[in-house]
Amino acid sequence: MLANYLIGLREGLEAALIVTILIAYVVKIGRRDVLPRIWAGVGLAVLLALLLGGILTFGTYGLSFAAQETIGGLLSIIATGLVTWMVFWMLRTARDLKGHLHGNIDKHLTGTGMGLVLVAFLAVGREGIETALFMWAAVQATGETTLPLVGASLGILTAVGLGALIYSGMLRINLSRFFTWTGAILIIVAAGVLSYGVHDLQEAGLLPGLNALAFNVSAVIPPDSWYGTLLKGTLNFSPATTWLEMFAWVAYAVPTLTLFILKSRQTRPSPSAVQPRTAQAVVAH
């Protein structure tokens, strides 16, 4: 549940910041008439995420076990790739996120501003797709449906609240530090999702070594115990791990986390925080 809360919080806060910047900018330049276009794009992005979640949840019913495991394994690998891209993208663009979005707004403000529907849809839809796919992978890995969804929902609600506080000027957040720490944690979570995806492909018969265990600590950490469930839900830890699963975890986590730490040190700006006092302050440089 904790990992899912973190996913919902991080992705939700990214989306909330994007919406905040879009709204604040058009308010500043006196184009309140295009606000409905922005909200239309946000609404369509939310519907897309929900539609994707429904397809992933119900689309595999009736398939054979091997087909379900194959789809689950491939989607887990895709989810890992998306999360990896997301944490590095935010690390690279967080400092100039406002400028990036302002440029897109300026290009689509001509006429009725219908292009802003696309701007908001693409900006928020990316976060929604990543959340839906990663959440589905987490549900498949843990075998639980309620707790992961509750955790992600609480994270998204927290992010919405934080976004509102930032917009109103009541909250000050060091976004660079926030995205650095959550990015490092999500890399560890993604390593577990990748490892579970490898296990799915082993069960589907596409990868070898299903019975070649690197370790089996089920007697010490029973899968149905509270601490076994906690480790499964947060890190996708499996008490019985194959050699290929362990290799995939190490081969992904070690170089990716090392590169992330090095990049974060190279791109770390001078200590600063988002400290808007009004809508205009959110977009002021």
Overall tally of structural domains: 1
How many strand segments? 2
Spatial separation of the terminal alpha carbons? 38 Å
- Output the strand order for the largest sheet: 1-2
Low-confidence stretches: 270-285
**Helical proportion?**
over 70%
Overall mean pLDDT: 80
Q: Which radius of gyration do the C-alpha atoms yield?
A: 20 Å
* Structure classification: mainly alpha
Total DSSP helices: 10
| Percentage of residues in strands | under 5%
- What multimeric state do the chains show? single chain
> How do the helices and strands follow one another from N- to C-terminus?
HHHHHHHEHEHH
For the report, how would you describe the main beta sheet? 2 strands, antiparallel
Shape: elongated
Short description, anyone?
With 285 residues, this protein is mainly alpha-helical. It has helices at 2-28, 35-58, 65-93, 97-107, 115-142, 146-168, 175-203, 226-235, 243-267, 279-283, and strands at 213-216, 240-242.
How would you explain this protein's 3D organization?
With 285 residues, the protein is mostly helical. It is built from 10 helices and 2 strands. It has one domain (2-283). Helix 1 packs across helix 4 (97-107). The two termini are 38 Å apart.
SSE inventory with pairings:
Elements: H1 2-28, H2 35-58, H3 65-93, H4 97-107, H5 115-142, H6 146-168, H7 175-203, E1 213-216, H8 226-235, E2 240-242, H9 243-267, H10 279-283
InterPro entries: FTR1/Fip1/EfeU (IPR004923)
Subcellular location: Membrane
Transmembrane segments: 6-26, 38-59, 71-91, 112-139, 145-166, 178-198, 243-262
